[in-house]
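Side project, low priority. Logging it here so it doesn't get lost.
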Amino acid sequence: MLTGYFDAASAEPLHPAARSAMLAALDSAWADPARLYGAARSARLELDRARARVAAVLGVRADEVAFTTSGTQAVHLGVLGALRSRRRVGRHLVVSAVEHSAVLHAAEAHERDGGEVAVVGVDETGRVDPAEFAAALRPDTALACLQSANHEVGTVQPVAEAAEACRAAGVPLLVDAAQSAGRIPVPDGWSLLTASAHKWGGPPGVGVLVVRKGTRWRSPLPEDEREGRRVPGFENVPAIIGAAAALEASAAGAPAENARLSGLVDLVRERVPATVPDVQVVGDPVRRLPHLVTFSCLYVEGEALLTELDRLGFAVSSGSSCTADTLRPSHVLEAMGVITHGNVRVSLPRGAEPSAVERFLAVLPDAVARLRAAAGVTGA
């Protein structure tokens, strides 16, 4: 792993446990798990073991877990499948304003199909008010969606309170746990959950869709015999086995690693505004993911700052989606009412070195100053 890689929120480096498990599975679990001959039965056995391991970490039944090709596909199937199954109840969908684009794109598809979407706002830290979320629920609400933690600023959402409100209203709750699975526990009470293996150190191309027993769900796609008729297509069994191994290992090491990374994030939260003028650190300072911190710099273009930091050996991302092809700031930052440009998201991977964080904090002030000077900004 590169010592300056600080973009774990996009993709956590492959966990050694995943690498070992996948290499072994390439020899032992390559056959079609739906067939009846020996090699296929072996692959099926390993697939079922991986499913049970993932279920154990998530605290659910193995037959509630289906593997998808990505976290995005899991979200799309979860949202649209739940809505399709409850059309007799109504066509009203509730989402937070800071959901991942996968949820919002599914909501847009629902609207185009004649459904109605209610968007619940957030405060300046990016957190939903549980009372406002509960007030958005109606007798014709078919589904509500609330992420476990925000992917851009790290704020942890009130899932337990939202789940209780949904239970009282008889509305299923879908929780997008892409940023928290394997890092922090997700409160119980939800009906559907989605996650993505490459966020916890598994391989890309493996997502997880959990549909709890008793939750109505009907696939929005043509039926297929795979994954309990929930997900079409041939399962990538070696990758799924690697994902399960990484999830187990990441969850087991999370308490100690979270405490260590949280201390480094606290250092960034304190040092950046003290050394760089006109900076706003965003997100909840307490109710947050342990490894993620986001700040915005006035008078600096985010893309230019990311490029400069890359030149200096640091891979970070922008919480903002304001790029040349979208020309649009982040919907998360807009909803929070904070600065939407000059935005940097630092998300520390497993094993991030304190010395690398110190080097990042040492080069950042000069990098910002150079870009401001090049833009003709003085006195900042």
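Brief comment: Residues 22 and 242 are 5 Å apart (CA to CA).
Revisit when time allows.
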